[in-house]
Fold:
Amino acid sequence: MEPETRTLSAAVREHLRQLCLHEFPCGTGSWNKSRFLPQTSRVWRELIPREEKSLSPGEETVEDLLGLVRSAHSPWALVEGSSAEDLFLKELAIQNPLMLKDSFFYTYFRSLRVVDKDVSLVDKELLKFVKLEELVLSANQIKEIDTTNLPPTLKVLELYGNKIASMECLCRHPPPRLQHLGLGHNKLLGPLESLHVTSDHWPNLVSLDLSFNNLTDLQNMVAGLQTLKHLRLLLLQGNPLALVPHYRGFTIDSLARLCVLDDITVASSEKHLFRGLSRSEDLLAPEAQLLVTVGNLRGVLDSSVLDSEPGPQGPFITYNYYVTYDFVEDEEGEGSQYGGVLAEVGAWAALPLGSQDPLTGAHSHRVRVVSGVSSEAGSLEWLASLSELGEMEESIVSGASEPLPRSTDSAEELAKLRPLLDPRLCPSPGTVLFSTVPKPWSDVIPCNYEMQHTLKDLVPLKAFLLSGTVVTVVEEKILSWPVEQPSSSDSPLAAKKGKGEKDKKEKEKDKKDKKGKGEKEPPKELRQDPPILRVLGSSPVVLEPLLAGEPFVSTVCNFGVIRTLEADRLTLNRALPPTASPWGAGISTQEFGEGHKYSRTP
Structure:
């Protein structure tokens, strides 16, 4: 069912009705009846109020009636946020109520503001406002405008926050005197929009606001804007085209008459600095480059102090900590280009050793869905659990590498794996999960992470920056167990082994006997269980300032207090020598957090 069409004229009439211009204390009635002459054939006397000599019982003075409208505590006062035009009409309805006729409205108003009234159609009734110069229709439901219904006297037209997908409808019969056009926060999209910003349609345009749309073609857009000889103020921020390198410099150098770009005054020093940049079109790569850095991680609880000492048969427990964040996925496959990337599901499938995977039919020790392991610069290493199914248990890969194969190929298989993970470890749709290098515990864990993201599909990038990312700190717990060696009697090759094998075992036995009784020899071979992942904290990071022209976003993610006095005491006891006092230094609870920085490559 299509939504009901609401016309502009209907919204204006409804607004005038809500002002109650013909009800007390406005209009005429028992509260002011003696002030006006009865109607006669002499029409001009209708508008002349009678001088106030004496008031009849029950009537109010004009000053008292105006006070009821102007006082903030009066029940007849205007609601907060009302315009100056509304107050003027209320006062006029008290002083001269007989003037408030349709002919007065159509000839008096030079500015009309209808904001957030669900207007979807600008009808021809608007043409009756013969002196209208400013029309504000922001935050409505307008998709198209028939410009033949716009008064030719219009100088300012604001259509912010509507649903306009193309300027083509505005260019059919544009108001010839228009000086300001505001189309921010709409849905303008496509390379053809540059054809609709030329002097053929807007010969007198001084100010143009196209901010926060989906415009991507900077060069053609600037070429169209160069024909607007009177253009002095321009807003393009919030568009994908504003994310490309050298956007501001190229725009300033191309539009020499521009005074303000994206709410920032264009200084003469900027014009000198960017001189000649408009002729270097090879610098305008149709891509955006964003640099993500992750600083230090502080206040993490050392979980190993809470574990008991392992016995000879294990388990031997190790802990690692790392940070994840999701970032928009490029259509060309960002996961295969960058390192430290967890796949869209990023799940562990824990299988018994030597068992068969019910999803893939392959024999495997454990499976982790990983799409990449390192960056081209070799600055990022990632612990991968599987190179090829069934071939190896664990590998650490650094330097440039090909993406690892995925263990599942269908949506049904991924759906089975997803419940195994904390939802905070699953990226949102259309994004890829990136991770720092897992590191062991320390009081300050240096992540030393830096990743440059280069994306060519700018429209999804804009949507991602508007929604922001989520930073998560993960604890990875790995249990290792000694591998039990098969007995010689069970082996089919035992009969083929000669005396040399027995001598070798006797030598190894002698080595063990020479060691002290207090020494423990760690097992030579350990098998590892799939890591147990625990989310220590997650925090959203706002990235919208990058769209508004900010060069970087820096934030400290504070996840609260997770360390206790008891845990810190155990950590200190383990670190100090046996003779040292564990209370030699003050211990307090610590807040847990880490620093992040997101910046755009200039």
Summary: The two ends are 48 Å apart (CA to CA). Residues 114-284 form a domain with the Leucine-rich repeat, LRR (right-handed beta-alpha superhelix) fold (CATH 3.80.10.10). The chain has two domains: 114-284, 289-483+523-600. The chain is about 20% helix and 20% strand.
